[in-house]
Specification:
Blueprint (H helix, E strand, L loop, with lengths): L12 E7 L8 H18 L1 E9 L2 E8 L2 H19 L11 E5 L1 H13 L1 H4 L14 H4 L12 H4 L5 H12 L3 H15 L2 E2 L2 H11 L19
Parallel strand pairs: 4-5
Antiparallel strand pairs: 1-3, 1-4, 2-3
Helix pairs in contact: 1-2, 3-8
Length: about 230
């Protein structure tokens, strides 16, 4: 049976996860090289990057692709370059990347928060603000990145950069990421869409495939572990 095509809907926000079977990032230079390639390759591929988290064995992204070929090219290029840097083949990565669609109004900010807090959630640091390799510093104003693109829900947090940064920092202190974490996990596992019923139905019509998460059943291994 042919594999189902990767989930992609041009112009919509996506949560993307690519996991590895061994450490991809072992030193600061590895993270810096990946981020430089991410910023340059995304621009060429027509993919807007809204958020990211690089963990030793996982890459988290929140992106909006202009077309599906661009997203696929971006992820393949990044994986190939990282493998070459490590002197590994395709076996460095645990199969294909996973993706889920995010409705802008209800799911984009929770997904950004979950990504920015990923290092803390995985026990890599006590405070996500100390993890250098995520977009948290950009969203809170401590480490601006000119190549990241803010999304409308972020702009709506305040009328000035300082107000938006402060509001986002306050949002990170709530349990928004924990509240939505299980749903994000299920959506990634199922290649599903997250949003209200109208959004999911619209996305299904656009892609001609089911995009709803399955009902809860027996617990499965978490895809959030890095």
């Amino acid at each position: 049976m042919a594999r189902q095509a990767r989930l992609c809907l041009p112009g919509q926000a996506h949560l993307v996860l690519q996991r590895a079977s061994a450490d991809v990032f072992r030193e600061a230079a590895d993270y810096e090289d990946y981020l430089q390639r991410l910023s340059h390759t995304a621009q060429r591929a027509g993919v807007q990057v809204h958020g990211y988290a690089l963990l030793p064995r996982a890459v988290w992204l929140v992106v909006t692709p202009a077309d599906c070929a661009g997203l696929s090219s971006l992820m393949q290029t990044l994986a190939r370059c990282a493998s070459r840097r490590r002197g590994e083949g395709a076996g460095l990565w645990q199969g294909r990347y996973r993706s889920a669609l995010l409705q802008q109004g209800s799911w984009l900010l929770p997904a950004l928060c979950a990504v920015d807090l990923a290092a803390q959630a995985e026990g890599l640091c006590a405070d996500a603000a100390t993890w250098r390799w995520s977009s948290l510093g950009h969203h809170t104003g401590r480490q601006p990145s000119g190549w990241l693109r803010e999304v409308p829900p972020y702009w709506e947090l305040g009328n000035t950069p300082y107000a938006r940064e402060a509001a986002y920092a306050a949002l990170l202190l709530t349990d928004v990421a924990q509240q939505h974490g299980e749903a994000l996990e299920r959506a990634l596992r199922a290649a599903a869409a997250l949003g209200d019923s109208d959004y999911v139905a619209w996305a299904e019509q656009q892609l001609g495939r089911k995009l709803r998460t399955r009902s809860r059943g027996r617990p499965r291994a978490s895809v959030l572990a890095a």
